Amino acid sequence: NAGVTQTPKFRVLKTGQSMTLLCAQDMNHEYMYWYRQDPGMGLRLIHYSVGEGTTAKGEVPDGYNVSRLKKQNFLLGLESAAPSQTSVYFCASSYADSDTEAFFGQGTRLTVV
Amino acid sequence: GNSVTQMEGPVTLSEEAFLTINCTYTATGYPSLFWYVQYPGEGLQLLLKATKADDKGSNKGFEATYRKETTSFHLEKGSVQVSDSAVYFCAPRDSGGSNYKLTFGKGTLLTVNP
Hints:
The structure holds two protein chains of two kinds.
Chain A: E1 4-7, E2 10-13, E3 19-25, E4 31-38, E5 42-51, E6 54-57, E7 64-67, E8 73-78, E9 87-94, E10 103-104, E11 108-112
Parallel strand pairs in A: 2-11
Antiparallel strand pairs in A: 1-3, 3-8, 4-5, 4-9, 5-6, 7-8, 9-10, 9-11
Chain B: E1 3-6, E2 11-14, E3 19-21, E4 23-26, E5 32-38, E6 44-50, E7 56-59, E8 62-65, E9 75-77, E10 86-93, E11 108-113
Parallel strand pairs in B: 2-11
Antiparallel strand pairs in B: 1-4, 3-9, 5-6, 5-10, 7-8, 8-9, 10-11
């Protein structure tokens, strides 16, 4: 059982370049999330989705876009990367049941130079 | 919505020492409570959970009790090991219509020395 898979695991971008991070889950979870983790800042929610075809803004959405065309996939796009977007990005997914935990991917370490 | 206040680290202990990481939360409803652990270079994973008042979650020697009257969910372990070195996150989860909301504390870095 793969769980939550993120690709790529590492990436270096130049300022102004674009890229897409892919998150795939095989647990039939309704909810999916994108977080960024920076030193001393904990996890900050970028965007989330409560179902196929729906997305919503989180705490720090500026500079990012997302899409959830299929239930199992949640894509995070950076249209024009900036050094401030250097971070570790985590995808998570969960069932709608509040008694259940979220499952996290292994993270994508992104450096924007 | 929920918010969570978690003891900030870093916390440095010697092997076999007793560990407590405090966590208090505010909630409009009756959340489920989770502790997650993040080992170096990895994503978060569930450590333990409790879904109703007075429940005790436990795993790998760690324990936490859902205290509704004090809105707390403190993490404890009687004897830590070097392998417990990680970042720990307290996380209440809303119930009802807001159950998509996952709230995380800022994390507590634990380092256990031999």
